[in-house]
Amino acid sequence: MLNLLKEFIVDYNCSYIFLILRVLCSVLLVF
Fold first, then answer.
1. DSSP 8-class letter at 31
2. In whole angstroms, how far apart are CA 19 and each of 1, 2, 3, 4, 29?
3. Cα-Cα-Cα-Cα dihedral of 23, 24, 26, 28, to 10°?
4. Which domain of life is it from (predicted)?
5. What is the pTM of this model?
6. Which of 6, 13, 30, 31 is 20 to 30 Å from 24 at the Cα level?
């Protein structure tokens, strides 16, 4: 159970970082 939760958190963090990178790229393209 704990292992599954840890895996989910890691996956969530990775997707969150990816989202931030996409937003940063969009902002850089605008400027």
1. -
2. 27, 26, 24, 23, 15
3. 170
4. Eukaryota
5. 0.52
6. 6
